[in-house]
Amino acid sequence: MELSNLMNLRLSLITAALLPLISTPLIANADDSDLERIVVTGDFQRESIQTLSASASLFSKDEINQRGASYLDEMLGSTANVNFTSGASRGRYIQIRGVGLRSQFVDPINPSVGLVIDGINYSGLGGSSLLFDIDQVEIYRGPQGTRFGADGMAGMIQMESAQATADPSLKLQVGMGTYNSREAGLAASTGLTDDTSARVSYFRRKSDGYVDNLYLNDETQQQDEQVARFKLNSQLTEHLNTELNLHYIDINNGYDAFTLDNSRNSVADEPGQDNQQSYAIGINNTYTGFDAFDVSLNLSAIDTELLYSFDEDWVCNDASEPQLCAAGLHPWGYSSTDVYTRDRDDQSANLQFNSKTGNWVAGVYYQNRDVDLEREYTWLASPFASTYETSNVAVYGQVATPIGPKTTLITGFRVEQYQGDYTDSNGFIEETDDVMVGGKIALEYQVIDRTMIYTSITRGYKAGGINSEALAKAKDEGLNLDADFFQQHTSFDPEYLWSGEFGVKGSSLDDKFTLRLAAFYMHRDNIQLKAWQVEGQQFTGYVDNASSGSNYGLEVEGSYQLTEDLFLTGSAGYLNTEIDDFVTQSGLNQDGREQAQSPKYQYAFSARYNFTNELYGMIGVEGKDDYYFSDSHNSKAPSSNLVNLSLGYEADMWAVRAWARNVFDEEVPTRGFEFGNDPLDGYATHTYVQLGEPRVAGITFTLEL
């Protein structure tokens, strides 16, 4: 991007942000305590989202309930410059500002967007994002190189479940909706002693899903998801507090998303599964007895079993059903399935020192991750097995230095060593060992009590890794794929991202108006891009490094209490991306093309009107531009514009809500690729897509005592 363009973006942003500030109510010198604080933890401390020197969004439990959402991907459409991909049954791969994963097959996952739930690192386990009894969801855009390291190059998502309270409380939620969906959840808190409180919650949801399998006469994209959480908070001594979090997640979903005609009618005879079973524990101990600083020690562990399988041919081979199974019965027809079973174990420890004044943080972090994979694939001579053990050790620190009465300089750094040891059943033994450095420099200027301007430079990174899918094919004599090529692409290097950001945040004296704006420019170096080697009906993926790329754009979020009964919210994002010097293995030159999963614009607006103190109605619209599915081909997802509705009655202790998403039943692809899979047309290459959520509606009842 030319310098003049960048300056124009900055000037436009400043002008737009300062316009509401010239009104008389905002110029008044207000007491900051009057501002309703939306508290986040993005900069190592709890602070208002309006004072955070970063672009961030937040979903409250009320917003989640009004939308009828039970899973994170059902909320993301209302967030600027955030996209998602349906890796299987759910949209569990997230992209922020055009950066993020799109899928996972054999390769060990290196997330670009981190996921933390109750202080436990679930990065790469997006299926864990169930929303029942979640108090708020925080989304941070841009590199989190100081705070989060290798898992947060593009951003981070943090979810916090409801706190354990000493006062007894009970929450009951039941709901039902289209596609035979039904759900039930129960949560309760109580004090166990004067110093100890506990909370327990359980939620289960089932649905037939959105695909009809005509051959099996069954719904084969079904959903069966449950989550249980236990939280214990104890003030052991005057200065020592301990919080224990226990999680259990059990997901048994079907996976039958692709068809030869890109419809929701499947004829696959061996539909797949998308399963996850996780046990997690997190213990956070905080000691406040020192004069100068507090000490926290966060320990966590996750044991996860994953099953991901699919019918690769998408057809049946039953001679008694020639109309349904014509493709499979063609002389060139084939039958193929692919099954991935993973056992993943994570352990982490974070020792952190926070100054009493809140002006500095220092810490040491350790994580070990061990992933065992077994793959059963029709075209492999025998099952493929691999083990990939990684460890991360990091030191980090951040200092906030006042350099004037209204100006603060923030400097942070993180140095992280990443090691990986890989072995597989083909006899490959590979090692990775990288030292990566990230950090943040930011200036915060408090214009008046309710308005701040910030500018920052941040550096994030993502670890390199092993192309285990390529290795799986490299020694298999039953395939025609180029083994020599894959032996030359056994690994890939780390990626680095530099980001410059300028933002303005403000609110009116009466809190009726809030505004957050950010302009950013990001430079990606050594970009990790997913590529594919395709020969006939055989294909395999691998990660390759392009030279560089650039991402720049704008983000705007705000709210306005227009009248006593009418409340407006909105967000908008603009994103421009580019790939530099990348040619795919097929010879496709992608130099200068937009990066995948990067719609040029996204928007969301909602209006809530209170008919009475209890009865309200809400309408929301959201949309995004078209975007490329992948960096390895040029097929696109079309632009989309969706309408959501809700009508609710909220009494003191209970509420009932009727809701609908995608009211006009737009077909929105959430994943797509190019492949020759139809024997009826000689396996000519077509674009095949997985369709996202159709029109869904339901009613939810909540009781809170």
Tell me what the structure shows.
The protein has six helices and 42 strands. The protein has a 22-stranded antiparallel β-barrel. The longest helix has 16 residues, at 3-18. The termini are far apart. Residues 1-36 have low confidence and may be disordered.
Helicity level: under 10%
| Tertiary shape | globular
- What's the CATH first level? Mainly Beta
Report strand %: over 45%
Radius of gyration: 25 Å
Q: How many β-strand runs?
A: 42
Output the number of helix runs: 6
Q: Supply the CATH superfamily name.
A: TonB-dependent receptor, beta-barrel domain
Measured between the Cα atoms of the first and last residue, the distance is 56 Å
Number of domains: 1
Q: Mean pLDDT, nearest integer?
A: 87
- Major beta sheet summary: 22 strands, antiparallel, barrel
Examine the secondary-structure arrangement and name the CATH architecture: Beta Barrel
- Say what the CATH topology is: Maltoporin, Chain A
Regions with little confidence, pLDDT below 50 for 5+ residues: 1-36
What structural class do you assign from the helix and strand content?
Answer: mainly beta
